[in-house]
Structures are given as C-alpha cells and as structure tokens.
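quick one, 252 residues, struct below
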Amino acid sequence: MSESEFADRVALVTGSSRGIGAETVKLLADRGAKVVINYRSSETEAHAVAEEIRDAGGEALVAQADVRDEDAVERMVEGVLDQWGRIDVLVNNANMPFAVEPFESMSWDEFSSKLDAELKAAFTVSKAVLPHMVEQEYGRLVYVSSGAGESPTPGFIAHGTAKGGLDTFAKYIAQEYGPHGITANVVAPGLVETDATADRIDEVREHVASQTPMDRVAQPEDVAHAIAALSGKDAQFVTGTYTPVNGGSEME
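---
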C-alpha cells in the first residue's frame, strides 16, 4: 500500500467485480482509499477482488446491488455509511447490456431498454450518494461513458445514444452540485480489452491498434488511471469535463 491523497477517503465503484471497475478499486485502494466493490451477479469475482486488496493491506467492502434498483442501492449506500461513515468518490461504471444491430432492424423496446437502464443506473446511484456528499461538502463523481456517444459505430446506436445521454447528465450534475464542493466528470474509453469485449477483440485488435497513435488497444488499467486522476485532489477545479481514453484514436 502506498501513502496518498486518498487516505481516509471512501470510494464506491459500481460494477467493480471485473474489468475496468476491478482495476479501478484496486488502484484506488493502493492509493489509500477504502473501497466498495459493487456487483450484481458476479459474487465470486467480487470477493476475489476484495481478497486481493486486503492481502495488499487495503480495506474493501463487497456490496451486492442491481444499480437500477432504488431500494437495493439505498441499502448498499446505508451499509457503506454504517461501515465507514462517508462516501467521497462515486464511480458510475456498471455495464448495461445492449442490442448490437442497425437502426433498420432495431425495435423500440431494444433501443429504449438500453437508454432506460443506463440513465436509471446513473440517476439512482447519484441520487443515493449526493445528499451525503452535500452534507460533507465534498464529493467526486466519475461517470464511465464510451467514445460511441460522440463517434458513431455501426450497430451501436442504442449504446451510443445512451452514453450520449449519460455525458449530458454528468454536466447537469456538475452544474448543480459544484457549489457544494462536488465535481462530476466523464471518462470515455474507446475499445478496451475486457471480458465484455472478449467475443470481438481478436477480430479488431490489430485494426484498432493500427489506427491508434499509442499503437495498442486500451487495457482496463488505462481507464482506471484516468478515473483516479479525476477522483483526486489534483482535479479539484475540474468538473463537467469529457475525457476520452483511447490512445488518440479519436482526438478532441
């Protein structure tokens, strides 16, 4: 464990049993934060991440909750407060499944289910933690989006539109809660090599790397480092921003 700005801070990372979320909780814990590993169904993986953190000298709490379920989220947040008394960082990362197909063949139910799940999750977890952040006059919220929200990808219209809505949502949170010492920012990865992309990564890795100035596909830890940067004191006057994490494959 290393000494850091996150000492005495509590970070809740949704969907953190694997992938980007798991790397994020491990990094924040390594930098001194007490971390909450949230999962919906991957219980074994969540406890394995917690064990790894504890073995390294960190503090970790495992919390099951479907982040679209208001009651489950409230129970999770109350459990964290009972354990540690505060929540300083929220990373909205839980992955919501979506239909991959062109608009021509997509139904409204397929399209709207992704929008509803993505935005309800962000709304629900934000609604649960923000009153406590306001009370302590401190908070860092990071919403994990996608480059598909700004750069259309074939078949990703539901995903991209939902993430575009998430990007706008974060700006409104930043505007409303800034006076309380709370920041809200977006991290938008491009293609990341995780379990969620395992079914297509081999087909596109070489092509994506060739189009990326950094000459490789992103790894979960690349995104975790960007999240940590926006969650810490060095970003205290940074809010309402959109940060691509794509190695330069798309540039702002």
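The mean pLDDT is 93.
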